[in-house]
Amino acid sequence: MRTATPAEPSTSTTLRAGPAPADPTPSRSALWLGWLFAGAATLIWSGNFVIARALSDDVPPVQTAFWRWTIALGVLAPFAARGLWHHRRTIRAHAGYVALVGLLGVTLFNTLIYVAGRTTSATNLALIAAASPVGIALFARAGGERLSRPRILGMLLALVGVVALVAKGSLAVLLHLDFAVGDLWMIAAMCTFAGYSALLKRKPKQIPAVVFLAATVLFGLVMLVPAQAVSLGVQGGFTPTGGNLAALAYIGVASSALAFFVWNRAVETIGATRAGVVYYLQPVCVAVLASLSLGESSTPAQFACMGLVIAGVALSSARR
Predict the structure, then answer these.
(1) Which among 23, 58, 131, 267 has most CB atoms closer than 10 A?
(2) Using an 8 Å Cβ cutoff, are 105 and 41 in contact?
(3) Nearest to 53 by CA among 135, 126, 106, 162
(4) Which residues are bridge partners to 5 per DSSP?
(5) Three-state secondary structure call for residue 8
(6) Measured between alpha carbons, how far apart are the two ends of the chain, in Å?
(7) Burial class of residue 259 (count of CB atoms within 10 Å of its CB; 0-12, 13-18, 19+)
């Protein structure tokens, strides 16, 4: 009879991902590390929104998602291939959980965003995305994560700041929004990201972070293959150019492999709700990046909105 080694626990004790652990307050150093991870992912994804716009007319949404994750898997492979083989029994034991995480985070999330971007405005996308931390908090609460009153207050304060920032401080912008079918796709994307983030707390601890990410990308990419085949058959391929190849490389390497790795580590370190609140900083990061790269200036009202967002994030993320 084979004896399980510490590196490969017997499947009798690891058949399912365990229940979400309690949400004890992390140490101060863990909080700083978790905030750093969540902030890094948010900053990288902010660059993704600026750069990926170039792909909207060149590459069909499903093909964008497929090549994005193919590139990401290629980047992860040198770091995770041996681990995938070494932990194959543990991954197989938790196959249902890994497949669900891959479906939400890889197969659906960004694909739905790319589909939504074809039929709705960037303002609508940003406003709906602003609700992601609320969705993350609700999913995490359903999974047993505790939400203190200051954290809820900070989350709502940041949400108000984000909505005001996206609307450029103008009530007229909000009142004259035109809603389209793309908004429904974006709501679906927001829900999948919230579910993905909440599920990360149930990650089997026996599987290293980079191996777990590679496994979810592999599962999610396999589930994208049928949609990729349909897209190629109906829409045809795309013409490679320096611009769209560079954009695919960025979203594949930075926005997928790197950003999802540090986001997963953030949720593992400080919990889905705290990490989700940091996600509110994305419009602030986009405004800063647009200012540095495109020369766009911000108004005093926008600076006030940014301050509101930062204050909300600080209040919600405080150690307590």
Answers:
(1) 267
(2) no
(3) 126
(4) 8
(5) strand
(6) 49
(7) buried
Contacts with 298 (C-beta within 8 Å, 6 or more apart), sequence order:
287, 291, 306
Residue 162 has pLDDT above 80, yes or no: no
Torsion of CA 2, 7, 11, 13, to 10 degrees: 120
Distance separating alpha carbons of residues 283 and 163, to the nearest angstrom: 9
Would you put residue 281 in left (φ > 0), alpha (ψ -120 to 50) or beta? alpha
Residue 288: name the closest of 303, 304, 300, 309 by CA: 303
The structure tokens 């716009």 sit at 53
Question: What is the tally of helices (H) and strands (E) in the chain?
Answer: 16, 0
Supply the angle between the helices 181-199 and 122-129 in degrees, to the nearest 10.
30
Residue 166 CA to residue 77 CA, distance in Å, equals: 38
- The Cα 236–Cα 188 span in angstroms is 26
pLDDT for 31 = 80
Of residues 24 and 147, more confidently modeled: 147
185 closest CA partner among 51, 74, 289, 65: 65
Q: Which helix (H) or strand (E) holds 5?
A: none
In sequence order, the 6+-apart residues with CB closer than 8 A to the CB of 99 are 219, 223
Helices (H), 167-205: 171-175, 181-199
The span from the CA of 194 to the CA of 199, in Å, is 9
Q: HSE-up of 284 (CA within 13 Å, CB side)?
A: 22
Q: Does the predicted TM-score (pTM) go above 0.90?
A: no
Q: What's 153's DSSP letter?
A: H
All residues at 6 or more sequence positions from 27 whose CB lies less than 8 Å from its CB, including other chains: none
Q: Which two tokens stand for residue 224?
A: 């994208």
**Is the per-residue pLDDT at 1 higher than 50?**
no
